[in-house]
Amino acid sequence: MGIIPDGYISELARRFKFSRNGSRTAMNGKQMNGWLALSPLLVFLVVYLASSVVAGDFYRVPIASAFLIASCYALIITPGRNIDSKIAVFSEGAGNKNVLLMIWVFVFAGAFASTAKAIGAIDATVNLTLMILPGKLLYAGIFLASCFISMSIGTSVGTIVALVPVASGLASQSGTDPAFMAAIVTGGAFFGDNLSFISDTTIAATRTQECSMKDKFRANLYVAAPAAMAVAAVYIFLGKGVSVSDVSAPVDWIKLVPYLLVIILAVSGVNVIAVLAAGICVNAVIGFCDGSLGWIDWLGAVGTGIGGMGELIIVTMLAGGMLELIRYNGGIDFIIRLMTRGIKGRRGAEFSIAALVSFANICTANNTVAIITTGSIARDITRKFGLDPRKTASILDTFSCLVQGFIPYGAQLLMASGLAGVPVAGIISHLYYPFVLGVVAVLSILFRFPRKYS
């Protein structure tokens, strides 16, 4: 995901203790029916999806409302002496340092995007893009740019912060659905995050499987590259009839500096919050110098940007609390035990690893945490069935990133939704890359490719 601080992976590895049979030791020391422990996720999906179907419009149902109902249900079914102890567990998840880090990223990203828009940085970047790319290559160009930037900086969230506002501006110029443009950027961000050497998902996958990053990269490339090429071809086809308005005003080059700075600092390995803070300051300096912003205007833009992230912050905290209750009640332990029973053959072993990390990602909404949670089990399965650890690391990374593109409460989709001003469901409906990646990943297991790692 790209927003976990240094040292946090080691802390997570210590936090998730595994027993001899591969299940995590329960934190509360109590046994609970596994399906009941997982049922808050079902309640969330039923409330959100069923309500949307009844309404006939996924745009009308706030995801925060569905999470609030599911969270209340999770509190009710959680065993405890009193409501205070249950709320304490919920609050521990909502206030987890990783959840809070996501929230700080949302806060700074909102402020950066809003101040960049206020000084005209988005308009300048849109004009430059329209000047460089012909209309028929607009979709494919944005997708490939997102792939390259995400692979360079190792963070899908950082890529989305930098490119979604620009993509939204391009959407208005080309008459394209903003949700579609946001989905193009998000898909490319997942591609780069899956392959980057400095991504925390890559670090977690290679460490848990004890293989080198370059070997995992090669194994991943056989799956991710065909998927990306297929999606790029689709965007070229869809963009054949796209026309964009002529750039009447010259490009204001100085206003490109904030986005270039964000990309350069991120590629250099600077912490994402420090990167965004620097971007906010540069926006202020440019605005003050050219007169496009005054002090009060700048403060107003910062406040507007932060306020626009309010729903995302609430959803993130509700999701963190609910998922912590699922872990507390043994839901992840249960699904790990369930999915590792009756494995037969190498294909079955690889599919079980894919299913494990996928479900863990649904339960944690964080692909790095999902990999660490299931990494020890995956390593045991790899040794028992003679799998190649490089292929296992690729499966862990690929399927966790795949699921991250489907869950409406993942950081990437929430961030893209907030910056583009469109519902998460609208982005998911146009998100091609994760679907194609999933198909290629399943085929790679069924047909045992790449042969070198199978």
Radius of gyration, CA atoms, in whole angstroms: 22 Å
Q: Kindly name the structural category.
A: mainly alpha
pLDDT average, as an integer? 82
Helix content: over 70%
The gross shape turns out to be globular
C-alpha end-to-end distance: 27 Å
Main sheet characteristics: none
Instruction: List how many beta strands DSSP finds.
Output: 0
Which blocks of ≥5 consecutive residues have pLDDT under 50?
A: 8-12, 14-29
Strand content: under 5%
Structure annotation, total helices: 22
What descriptive keywords fit this protein?
454 residues; mainly alpha; 22 helices
Give a structural overview.
With 454 residues, this protein is mainly alpha-helical. It is built from 22 helices and no strands. The protein is globular. The two termini are 27 Å apart.
In short:
The chain has 454 residues and is an all-alpha fold. Helices cover 74% and strands 0% of the residues.
What order do the helices and strands come in, and which of them pair?
Elements: H1 8-15, H2 34-55, H3 63-77, H4 83-94, H5 97-119, H6 121-132, H7 138-153, H8 156-174, H9 178-195, H10 200-209, H11 213-238, H12 257-267, H13 272-290, H14 295-308, H15 310-328, H16 331-339, H17 345-364, H18 367-385, H19 389-404, H20 411-420, H21 424-428, H22 432-446
Helix pairs in contact: 2-3, 2-15, 2-16, 3-15, 4-15, 5-13, 5-14, 5-15, 5-20, 6-8, 7-8, 7-9, 7-11, 8-9, 8-20, 9-11, 9-19, 9-20, 10-18, 10-19, 11-19, 11-22, 12-13, 16-17, 17-18, 17-19, 18-19, 19-22
